[in-house]
Amino acid sequence: MGVTSQTQALSLGEGSTPLVSAGRLSHETGYDLHLKLEGANPTGSFKDRGMVVAVARAVEAGARAVICASTGNTAASAAAYAARAGLDAVVLTPAGATATAKRAQAVAAGARLIELRGSFDDALRICRELGARPGFVLVNSLNPDRIEGQKRVVGELIEQLGAVPDVVALPFGGGGNVTAVAAAVEESSLDVRIVVGQAAERPTTWASAIRISEPAHAEHVATLVSDGRVEVVTLSEDELRRAWHRLAQEEGAFCEPASAAGLAALTQLGPGNGETAVCILTGHGLKDTGAVEGLHEDAPVVAAELDAVLEAIG
To answer: What are the pLDDT tens digits along the chain (314 aa)?
Structure first.
């Protein structure tokens, strides 16, 4: 799978996202830690890497519309690349489950957004049925073209790092990105430990991007685990929140809550011994600003005078 000589050239400038050293967190975790900022992709998440390939291949196949089930990031990405390619986009999402910013992205790009009285798994089931009909192409990560595009992140971070990392850590929601990273590692015969973090409270987790009770790639990820190629760490809501706070407040890396699952997983496993580790932060914090609500005090309102400001600073 992947692009062919007949595939339409299609891009919004995805990839080449920053890889930054995390000095303070390196000291605290015992790893030589680096952060791969996938929120710098065009629609703000890692989904763009695979979506550009999936949509380009849909055009090649003569599709009139792409379809996806989504809690937000897939919807935003599918809508943007469909618009770029001149295709329609249909998005099915559980009612009330999509962060406002992600919904806005999909709607702004012209997607037909339909909310279901059901779960993400219901949405994906219906999308798979639609995808079997002529003219529709499913662009969830069950589409192998998505996996092909997402594999590129591994080669890219190695190029930026100038070496193969000892550990790569990332979130585990539906399992598509886990599948892609593991495939890239295997195909290049790399000796890399892959650690993934999932929410203990999958159906209701605060980290909405991984709020998936039945991962589409669950069986494959289970095989990767049994083969010793992937380690799955189950995280409490408090662990996710603490990791998210640390990334923003200690490194200035404002990511959406699910993106912190890799760091939370590494932290739960205990301190490193100087190994080089890369945490893939899968989405930008502006994707879910609602996550900040209730986690901070309101800003004080004071007189427009220096003394009042100094007093507020304390």
So the answer is: 555 555 668 999 999 999 999 999 999 999 999 999 999 999 999 999 999 999 999 999 999 999 999 888 999 999 999 999 999 999 999 888 777 888 899 999 999 999 999 888 899 999 999 999 999 999 999 999 999 999 999 999 999 999 999 999 999 999 999 999 999 999 999 999 999 999 999 999 999 889 888 898 999 999 999 999 999 999 999 999 999 999 999 999 999 999 999 999 999 999 999 999 999 999 999 998 888 876 666 788 999 999 999 999 88
Domain annotation covers residue 73: yes
Q: How many domains does the chain have?
A: 2
Compute, in degrees rounded to 10, the torsion defined by CA atoms 284, 286, 292, 296. 100
Coil, helix or strand at residue 118: coil
Half-sphere exposure (CA, 13 Å, Cβ side) for 276? 14
End-of-domain residue from the set 97, 121, 143: 143
Shared domain check, 176 and 269:
yes
111 and 202 both lie in a single domain: no
- For residue 301, being part of any structural domain is answered with no
